[in-house]
Design goal:
This protein is mainly beta and about 190 residues long. The chain has one helix spanning about 1-5; strands at about 10, 15, 50, 65-70, 80, 100-105, 115-120, 130-135, 150, 170-175, 185.
Length: about 190
């Protein structure tokens, strides 16, 4: 399949586009070995990420967040990630719906699993509900504690197309089973 042959790419509406990084992809992070696509900090325990896109953040209803439970489940730390958190690079705002979709993958290929989070209600300038997707990199210290993440916006940077009101880019996210590095599928149902 095209996904299995691809080393680096984004799939959007059935098309594949390369993901480029500023600089080179990092070597395997110390203490991170590619063992589980659900291990954000490389400690050998699966971690769990759960989105709550209706959560109120700083008075903004529906801004949303993701709660990460680091393993082993029940004894590891619990962290809340918003668009304003370190390593995300955005600002939490009402009705962004950050956490509507969450998935994991090896986006930068350093051995620590990365978290991909959608905000399909993200307004971009005067374009309401255009949507955005944040990639938050894992590291031995946890999500957002190493390499800076980035945000994918339709019609900007590597993402093709034109954003329009109501596109809701990021309404669906998927990565291949087994965590094939650098591949991400993003849905924009109203595009």
């Amino acid at each position: 399949s095209a996904l299995r042959k691809l080393k680096t790419g984004v799939v959007l509406a059935g098309l594949v586009f390369p993901l480029f990084f500023i600089g080179s992809a990092p070597a395997s992070a110390a203490d991170c070995t590619a063992g589980s696509v659900r291990d954000f900090n490389g400690d050998g325990n699966d971690d769990i990420a759960v989105g709550d896109p209706k959560a109120t953040i700083g008075g903004g209803a529906g801004a949303g967040y993701v709660v990460v439970h680091y393993g082993p489940l029940g004894s590891g730390p619990k962290v809340t990630i918003t668009q304003s958190s370190a390593g995300v690079g955005e600002t939490s705002q009402a009705d962004d719906q950050f956490g509507a979709e969450v998935t994991t993958g090896y986006i930068d290929g350093d051995g620590c699993a990365d978290l991909i989070v959608s905000a399909p209600g993200e307004d971009l300038a005067a374009t309401t509900n255009a949507g955005a997707v944040s990639v938050i990199f894992g590291s031995p210290d946890g999500l957002g504690k190493g390499r800076s993440g980035f945000t994918l916006i339709q019609g900007s940077g590597i993402m093709p197309g034109n954003r329009a009101q109501g596109d809701r880019f990021g309404s669906a996210l998927a990565t291949p089973a087994g965590g094939l590095a650098h591949v991400l599928a993003i849905g924009a149902p109203n595009d």
